[in-house]
Amino acid sequence: MSGVARRTVVAAAGGAGLAMALTACGGGGDGGTDDGAAEEGGTLARTGDIPVGGGKILADKGLVITQPKAGEFKAFSSKCTHQGCAVSGVKDGAIVCPCHQSHFDISDGSVKSGPATAPLPPEPIQVVGDAISLG
Ligand code: FES
């Protein structure tokens, strides 16, 4: 499946290579001081990497990105609001914490089942073309 291959490439490159490629295409070539900022706030994922009705954990960014409906993307902190474990997966419309099995709704981060009582905090993102970045 090509989706798996693409995900592997993104993980291996840490997104930096892709972000630089995008910067080269979209921006002026002489904005030297902007390059660092562009990398920091660069592409987190591609829209095609996020399954509809599911999501993807970006462990190194402390984020989970979801696509509750086709073309609608959300991001939340991946730190569980119960005792701070990192959520580990997205299953059946829920973001799941492995420590005590709290489930959070992929559309708004709200608690579907505890022990957590507070929602996962939303994180601002923007989608430009097929690139998802912090926004
Ligand atoms: S730390 Fe996530 S459910 Fe307890």
Describe the structure.
The chain has 135 residues and is α+β, with helices and mostly antiparallel strands. It folds into two domains: 2-30; 37-134, 3-layer Sandwich (Rieske Iron-sulfur Protein), CATH 2.102.10.10. It contains three helices and ten strands. Helix 2 packs across helix 3 (34-40). It is globular, with a radius of gyration of 16 Å. The structure holds FE2/S2 (inorganic) cluster (FES). Residues 80, 82-85, 97, 99-100, 102, 115-116 line the site of FE2/S2 (inorganic) cluster (FES).
Q: Please give the domain count.
A: 2
Strand order of the largest sheet: 5-6-7-8
Provide the gyration radius in Å.
16 Å
**Content-based structural category:** alpha+beta
Low-confidence stretches: 1-5, 8-40
Report the CATH topology name of the largest domain. Answer: Rieske Iron-sulfur Protein
At the fourth CATH level, what is the homologous superfamily of the largest domain?
Rieske [2Fe-2S] iron-sulphur domain
Residue-averaged pLDDT, rounded?
Answer: 80
The first-to-last residue Cα distance is 30 Å
User: Can you tell me the CATH architecture of the largest domain?
Assistant: 3-layer Sandwich
Largest sheet: 4 strands, antiparallel
